Amino acid sequence: MDLIQALIFGIVEGITEFLPISSTGHLMLTAKVMGLTQTEFLKTFEIVIQFGAILSVIILYWRTILLNFNVFKRVIIAFIPTAILGLVFYKIIKQFLMKSEQVVLWSMFVGGICLIIFELLHKEKHNAIEDIGSIPYTTLLIIGLFQSIAMIPGVSRSAATIIGGLILGLKRKTIVEFSFLLAIPTMLAATVLDLAKNMGEFSVSQINFLSAGFIFSFIFALLSVKFLLNFIKRHTFISFGIYRIILALIFWIAL
To answer: Could you list the residue range(s) of the whole structural domain that residue 93 is in?
Structure first.
């Protein structure tokens, strides 16, 4: 990896982290296009720069997180299923799933179909939950389980969380914003866990690449969050589903 590639990864991560198209899947496919193999450093790099994107949410929502205990408490509760399952399946995910482009492409393809079908069938109820601070605890745990599905590369953490929230009766804007907040402990935990296991093995130049990717991920994630919040006011996620299907087909043809 060189500096330009690190910056490209940061841009891809920042743009895709909060859209329902899978940032991890896009990073793996970006590596494929660049001819990079899934080394331990690259897999860690792909995880660490995701926290650059998460930092953008912290900057945008710090008042909500720090000044509203009901919201903070609900984010932590919803994070519990992912924390437990992530620790249990960490080695399997890192050693096997993160190496497979076919897992990513099938997740992209099937996930795209699911997004389209769901949006065609979903009707928001008039009494849908609007306030994050009033989401029931059982609903939070189920949302956390939905997010855990995204441990499979290509599924999309944001798509799984948002669809889960919509199924459980949350307003679209509410679950989209909650998915932003839920990403904070999720990606922070993933980053700390991975760095703790691998940081001592990286060279100075590799740490510089991590830093560059982190910064660009942060900048472009800020733009992506604002884009998505404006997008959902007028559109469903069908276009993202179509995009996922087309991307998977393109890579299947090209591979």
So the answer is: 3-100+121-238
